Amino acid sequence: MTSFPTGQTVVKTAATYGKDLLERVLATFLQSFLAGIVVTQPLDGSMWYAALAGGVGAVLALVKGLIARVRDVTNSASLAKGV
What pTM was computed for the model? Predict the structure, then answer.
């Protein structure tokens, strides 16, 4: 007989995953944005290009985290096994 987790367990698991994914997306945005500024300053590029680069990086991090969730049901947005 298949046993399903309790509602409280599902909510805690979803909350843990959501926090992990949000942290990864925000960190990726900030890293990409700062990298974009470092590149655009010497090349006299717009700060908006740096923000766009940060946004693209964050969206890619979000997609990767969602794929990780679909691939393996865990509390992590990581693609590594056992994380």
Answer: 0.58
